[in-house]
Fold these 2 entries.
Entry 1:
Amino acid sequence: MDSFAYGRASGIEDALAEGSGPNTVFLAGGTELLNWLRLGIAKPERVIDLTQLTGLAEIARLPGGGLRIGALARLNDVALNDDVARGYPVLSQAILKSASAQLRNLATIGGNPFQKTRCGYFRAEEALPCNKRNPGSGCSALNGINDRHAIFGWNESCVATQPSDPATALVALDAIFVTVHREGERRIEATDFHILPGDTPHIENALRHGELIVGIELPAAAPHSAYLKLRERESYEYAVVSAAVALDLEGERISRARIALGSVALKPWRLTEAEHSLVGVSANDNAAIRKIIEGSFGEAKALTHSAYKITLAKNAAVRAVRLAARASP
Ligand SMILES: Cc1cc2nc3c(=O)[nH]c(=O)nc-3n(C[C@H](O)[C@H](O)[C@H](O)COP(=O)(O)OP(=O)(O)OC[C@H]3O[C@@H](n4cnc5c(N)ncnc54)[C@H](O)[C@@H]3O)c2cc1C
Ligand code: SF4
């Protein structure tokens, strides 16, 4: 690990001033950043510790309904908060299926969406062709080991996936990331936070250098919601595929559906076509739900070894719709 200077921000203004310096990164829980430093994925000259910004760890109800979660709230504190667990079970479940209890006690909700892909070539200790890590060097996974890679939104520059569980739930909930920068405040829809590879797979999200997430806003509660994570073992493991679903129901009929798939692309992938077609369908009509979801995979495209993920993702989405319908408010 290369050496770097360490600073501790005393307030938001201080964090913005310090964070705008060249080759400077923020540190929240440190659970992801420390791995980047160890592997040489990040080589910052300066690290600005945010942990003294205690006002950013609160979870509060919004006046018009909904919740605001401070960016520095620890994952376990978010998942176990009563308002989150009752009103947004999809988020609570996604968090509790992330990492381990020890990590969740340290990791923050604001730091979580910044985690980088689990692509083995990207995280290798030796330098391998990887456009995300060394722009212009190629993509080793394109014709290499790609069984855990993308089925949506990829191109030849990068076929990796974004592994965050909470980010997938936040996209299904239409959450908003509230940010501050020296040039002002912004509100970014969760679905616009991560960026598909294009020609610049090393650019991963919509934030500018030195921009700070201060909070995440959730709109009205979504008690009929659920998160399904399919992985190789049931604990302490990243998803092969996941599905986050939030439903509005009128009786047994679906009046609104929101579905996001995780670990299938470089961003959580909304099944918008299925969301529209599910309106008016009975939540008990498994055959109709399956037909609609299977019909919404027109953009799915397998790599040499990732075709099984298309079947897995369809099944996950169908099962998650059923779980969300059964969730009791
Ligand atoms: C062994 C292991 C297993 C894991 N398993 C899972 C899993 O199954 N599912 C899952 O979803 N995640 C998993 N994770 C990822 C884990 O959830 C993230 O490491 C964690 O949420 C990151 O949060 P942090 O506060 O520690 O971020 P940090 O490591 O402190 O920060 C990472 C980067 O995020 C940026 N950042 C942090 N906070 C802010 C902010 N408020 N504003 C702007 N930028 C900010 C900075 O650039 C920083 O450099 C795992 C991690 C490990 C180490
Ligand atoms: S899939 Fe992306 S992260 Fe993986 S080797 Fe290719 S360019 Fe790098």
Entry 2:
Amino acid sequence: MELSQARKYWKVGASIGCEGCEPFSSLFFKAFEPDETLLQRIDGKSWKRGQSIPAEDLRYLTLPHFPGINGDIVLGEMLCHKDIAPDLLDIFQSLFNHHYPIERLRLIDDYEADDNASMAANNSSCFCDRSVAWSSEKKSRHALGMAVDINPLYNPMVRVRDGVLKVYPPQSLPYADRTRNFDYKIERSDLCYKLFIARGFRWGGAWASGPDFQHFEK
Ligand SMILES: [Zn+2]
């Protein structure tokens, strides 16, 4: 099936009951090559035609997910590099099978490719042609579609600059203290952590220079 056909059914953000999964279930956990409609949606936001990585290197993933422990299935989406598409389909299938809560799964373009806005909305995302958060020059692995941020509001990026604690997004300050327990927390005992590590990803939460608890990359 082409993405243009799938789009008729795959209404991102829509929630569906388990028994009402048809005809959606045939579209669960699929990777599509981007079509022109998708490219127009992201051009000038997360992707710049002629400057960012070629469109044929990107894959659009259809990812059903559970926003909370209980409740309906919600239709989600993600854009990633084709090299990690099989990994992500497997990982998100396992998370789904275990009802692992992923609150929101939309392209960052719905937030005008503003990483802070996306993180503050607890939106999990992957591809975005941007620099790393603390530098305007260094390109992020997100720019290649090789990094994924999961439940970012509860798993912030933490830096100490000139003795001052910086938390991204700023709304995540209560979750910078990792000795506390709360929903959506990623740590080494967490299923999400285990699945990404098993697939050969590195976890930003282990970075001594400043942990990035939401971040997995290849
Ligand atoms: Zn990240």
